[in-house]
Design brief:
Number of strands: 16
Shape: globular
Strand order of the largest sheet: 8-9-11-12-13-14-15-16
Radius of gyration: 22 Å
Structural class: alpha/beta
Number of helices: 16
Oligomer: single chain
Distance between the termini: 43 Å
Largest sheet: 8 strands, mixed, barrel
C-alpha cells in the first residue's frame, strides 16, 4: 500500500513511478454493483502483479489507483514502451465475475527522478509529477503520459508545491487547527454534537479552508500528520466540554497503521473517548471490510461511535450498514440541498430513512441551509441536522463560549 511505497521509494535507484488509474471506475460500480467493483480492484492488482516487470513493485495508493515503482535510469522510449505494455495487457485481459465479463481500460501517468524539483522532497515531488501526468493524460484522452516540464500544467503544479510547503510549515509550527460545526437534535432543537473540520492558519494569520491543501496532503507523506493534528485538536477541546464530537477518517486512514495506532492510544488515554464519533468518508473505496470492521470493533470498546459520511451520493450500498454496524448515516448534501422541492431526492431520503430506522441507525441531514429544508427533514423524521441555517463552523474559543 502507499505506506510501503514511501518506504521503498527512497531505497530505489533513480526511481520511475507509474501511476495507474482505472478508467470510469464509478460507472463500473454503478452498473455492476459494488461487489463486482471490489472484485475488479483485487483482480486488477493481482493481474498487474503477475506481469513480467511488475511483480511485487505494485502498491495500492487509494480507491482505484495503483503505483508501480521501477528502478532507473530508464530511457524515454523504455518508459513509453512499459506504459503501453501495461495499458495493452489490461485492455486485452478478460476479467470475469461469475458469468459477467468486465472489460477494463487504464490510464497511466509517469514521472522519473530526472524531473525532480529541488523545491520539495524528491519523493513527494515524484508522486505529484506522476499525478500531474495522469491528469493530463485523462484530459487529452491518452492512454499514458510521461511528465515533462513543458506540459501546460505549470501553474497547477507550482500551486501544489506552494501548498505542500505551506502545509509542512503549518504542521511543524502547530498551525493546523479545527473549526467545529454544530449538529442539532431536530426533535429538541438543541446542539448535541460538533463535527471537527480541519483548517490551516497561514503564516499571515489567515484561516485557510481544506479545499486548498487537503488533496496535496493526500498525495504526500504529510497526510497521516494532518489526521493526527485533527484528532489531537478535537480531543483536547472536548476533554473540557461534554458534547459529542465527530472526526472524519478516510478509508486510507484506516489502512495506515501509524494513524490507527495513534487513535487507539488516544482512545485509551482520553476521558473524551466515549463521546467520539468517527465519520468514514469515501466509503465506496472499502475493499477489505475486515480491517475496517476491526477498527470499528476496537473503538467501540471505548464507547465511541461510527458514522458513514455522504451517504446517498453516487453509488451507495446498504451493505455498508449491515457489515460495518454503524451508528449514524450522514445524508449527502446533494440529496438535502433541494429536498423541499425535488421529489426524486425526497424519495431517496425516505427509502434510506426507512432502512435506517429498521436497523436502529440515527440519521443526520447535511446542508440544511434554509428554513424550508429544515422543516422538510424534520417532517420526514431525520434525527439530526447540520448546515449553515443551524450553525456555521466555529472556532474552539467560540465553542467554549
Amino acid at each position: 500500500n502507499r505506506n510501503k511505497f514511501f518506504i521503498d521509494l527512497p531505497l530505489t535507484n533513480d526511481p520511475v513511478v507509474f501511476l495507474v488509474n482505472i478508467d470510469s471506475f464509478k460507472e463500473i460500480n454503478d452498473f455492476y454493483g459494488e461487489t463486482v467493483g471490489d472484485f475488479i480492484l483485487v483482480e486488477l492488482a493481482s493481474f498487474l502483479a503477475s506481469l513480467p516487470g511488475v511483480g511485487d513493485s505494485i502498491y495500492r495508493m487509494q480507491a482505484d489507483e495503483y503505483a508501480i515503482l521501477k528502478p532507473g535510469p530508464m530511457k524515454r522510449e523504455e518508459i513509453a514502451s512499459f506504459a503501453t505494455y501495461l495499458c495493452d495487457k489490461v485492455g486485452n485481459h478478460r476479467f470475469v465475475y461469475r458469468d459477467y465479463e468486465v472489460m477494463l481500460n487504464i490510464t497511466v501517468g509517469v514521472a522519473d527522478s530526472s524531473t525532480r524539483d529541488a523545491v520539495v522532497d524528491i519523493w513527494d515531488d515524484l508522486l505529484l509529477r506522476a499525478d500531474m501526468a495522469l491528469k493530463v493524460a485523462k484530459k487529452r484522452h491518452h492512454t499514458y503520459m510521461i511528465y515533462d516540464p513543458s506540459m501546460q500544467v505549470k501553474e497547477e503544479f507550482e500551486n501544489n508545491l506552494i501548498w505542500m510547503s505551506k502545509l509542512r510549515s503549518a504542521l511543524q509550527e502547530s498551525r493546523i487547527i479545527c473549526h467545529y460545526q454544530p449538529i442539532v437534535n431536530l426533535t429538541t432543537g438543541k446542539i448535541e454534537k460538533f463535527e471537527s473540520l480541519v483548517r490551516m492558519i497561514d503564516d499571515d494569520g489567515q484561516i485557510i479552508s481544506p479545499y486548498a491543501f487537503l488533496e496535496v496532503a493526500k498525495r504526500s507523506r504529510l497526510y497521516p500528520q494532518l489526521t493526527q493534528a485533527v484528532v489531537n485538536h478535537a480531543f483536547t477541546l472536548f476533554e473540557k466540554h461534554r458534547y459529542h464530537f465527530s472526526i472524519n477518517l478516510s478509508v486510507e486512514d484506516l489502512f495506515t497503521p501509524q494513524i490507527v495506532e495513534f487513535i487507539m492510544e488516544k482512545m485509551r488515554r482520553s476521558p473524551a473517548a466515549p463521546r467520539a464519533i468517527f465519520e468514514i468518508v469515501e466509503s465506496e473505496g472499502i475493499v477489505n471490510y475486515e480491517v475496517v470492521s476491526d477498527f470499528i470493533t476496537n473503538i467501540k470498546r471505548f464507547g465511541a461511535q461510527v458514522a458513514i459520511d455522504d451517504f446517498g451520493s453516487g453509488y451507495s450500498n446498504f451493505d455498508h450498514l449491515l457489515r460495518l454496524k454503524v451508528d449514524y448515516i450522514k445524508l449527502d448534501g446533494s440529496l438535502i440541498r433541494h429536498i423541499d422541492t425535488d421529489d426524486h431526492s425526497r424519495i431517496i431520503v425516505e427509502t434510506i430513512l426507512t432502512f435506517a430506522q429498521k436497523l436502529g441507525i440515527a440519521t443526520v441531514a447535511e446542508f440544511v441551509h434554509n428554513e424550508a429544508v429544515l422543516q422538510k427533514v424534520k417532517a420526514l423524521g431525520v434525527t439530526y441536522g447540520q448546515g449553515y441555517h443551524l450553525g456555521k463552523p466555529m472556532s474552539a474559543q467560540e465553542v467554549q463560549g
